[in-house]
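Weekly sync, protein design subgroup
Attendees: M.S., D.O., the rotation student, P.L. (late)

Item 1: inverse folding check
M.S. brought a backbone from last month's batch and wanted to see whether the design step gives back something sensible before we order anything. D.O. pointed out we never logged the input encoding, so this time it goes straight into the notes. Structure tokens as presented (264 positions):
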């Protein structure tokens, strides 16, 4: 048996502030297998970003255990790559220099890794942009640079926190396909946070629905094989897609009815 890429056991997170203690996550358990693509969806404030921070080792959970490839996570590790909604490209660095930043920070920039960055830039259709600066690029291109930077350090597990939410619809669909193709071809494991139900279904093998107050897992659904096998754009045309969308939509409404929560 292969080790799971990610395992969360009884994970809880309490934030303490002047107003008191707030239970942001309660008893979260989740296993993600190697090569699997899992989406986390749920209303704003249900703890999705908190969960990614715990998985990435940026924060330690108040209770419970986070394990990546069989090892307890106690601090950030190169095994985990984190891509955010905002691309955080440095305006004074070229596209190539931004893409190589992670490797540089880890002290792993050498001839081989430099070549790999250039290869990835080529794969993402950015070869001709390598010597340009971020302000020359569209939002979709900038997110592709951020993806190259995340992939360049060769993490096994990628965490994606709403990476497409600031993009226009067409660019977002193109990037969904590109990301799924790139990650599947490298057998990477991914956890995607999104508030877009159709994006979650189209991109993933499994969708995990969370609910707030306190943040916890409400339910999980497997995405049917026909949808899983298709690239995100075609996945939306597959039989069963709309039924699954309706089902997940129903969960959102059930939470809304109870909590008066907002989407996001
Ligand atoms: P999501 O990403 O699902 O919108 P978050 O993980 O960002 O949710 O936040 C979950 C809850 O925890 C929210 O109610 C938020 O206000 C609270 N929260 C997040 N970060 C902090 C923090 N550093 N200190 C106190 N409360 C926080
Ligand atoms: Mg968030």
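Designed sequence read out in the meeting:
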């Amino acid at each position: 048996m292969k080790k799971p890429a990610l395992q969360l056991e009884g994970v809880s997170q309490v934030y303490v502030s002047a107003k008191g203690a707030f239970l942001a996550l309660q008893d979260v358990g989740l296993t993600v297998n190697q090569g699997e693509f899992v989406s986390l969806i749920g209303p704003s404030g249900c703890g999705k970003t908190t969960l990614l921070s715990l998985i990435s080792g940026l924060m330690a959970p108040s209770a419970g255990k986070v394990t990546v490839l069989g090892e307890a996570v106690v601090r950030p590790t190169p095994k985990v790559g984190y891509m955010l909604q905002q691309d955080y490209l440095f305006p004074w660095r070229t596209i190539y220099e931004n893409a190589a930043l992670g490797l540089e920070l880890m002290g792993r920039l050498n001839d081989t890794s430099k070549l790999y960055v250039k290869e990835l830039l080529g794969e993402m259709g950015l070869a001709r942009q390598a010597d340009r600066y971020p302000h020359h690029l569209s939002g979709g291109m900038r997110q592709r640079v951020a993806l190259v930077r995340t992939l360049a350090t060769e993490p096994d597990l990628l965490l994606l926190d709403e990476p497409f939410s600031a993009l226009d619809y067409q660019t977002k669909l193109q990037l969904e396909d590109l990301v799924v193709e790139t990650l599947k071809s490298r057998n990477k494991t991914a956890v995607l946070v999104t508030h877009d139900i159709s994006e979650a279904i189209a991109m993933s093998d499994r969708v995990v629905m969370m609910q707030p107050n306190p943040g916890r897992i409400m339910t999980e659904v497997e995405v049917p094989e026909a949808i899983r096998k298709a690239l995100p754009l075609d996945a939306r045309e597959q039989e069963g897609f709309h039924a699954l969308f309706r089902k997940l939509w129903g969960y959102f409404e059930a939470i809304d009815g109870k909590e008066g929560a907002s989407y996001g």
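Discussion: The beta strands are 6-17, 20-32, 37-41, 63-68, 71-72, 80-83, 157-161, 189-193, 206-211, 216-222. The radius of gyration is 18 Å.
Action: P.L. to compare against the previous round before Friday.
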